[in-house]
Design a protein that fits this description.
There is one protein chain. It is flat and about 55 Å long. The chain contains two helices and no strands. With about 80 residues, it is an all-alpha fold. The longest helix is centred in the middle third of the chain and has 35 residues, at about 10-45. The chain has a domain at about 10-65. It has helices at about 10-45, 50-60.
Length: about 80
């Protein structure tokens, strides 16, 4: 999904639809994040880290449709940034 430029929204109905869609997306991601956090918590206590795999896959699947923001600053081509 592409970032939404608020200046391009001309109608209230269009804005409401975008807000609703974004709320649904946010709630879906919160649910997956909560599931992943619980799975990691259980895995920490039981030392059964294979429990996390299914939840990690669900999170990765949900992230396929992420909103991609334009990169800014240095290290824009890196996926991991290291700070000292």
């Amino acid at each position: 999904m592409e970032p939404i430029d608020a200046k391009e929204i001309k109608k209230i109905a269009e804005a409401r639809k975008i807000i609703n869609d974004l709320q649904v997306r946010l709630l879906e991601r919160e649910q997956v994040l909560d599931d992943l956090a619980r799975a990691v918590e259980i895995a920490e206590y039981t030392k059964q880290f294979e429990l996390v795999t299914g939840f990690r896959r669900a999170a990765e699947e949900l992230l396929q449709d992420r909103i991609v923001m334009p990169a800014q600053g240095e290290n824009v081509d890196m996926k991991i940034r290291i700070y000292e």
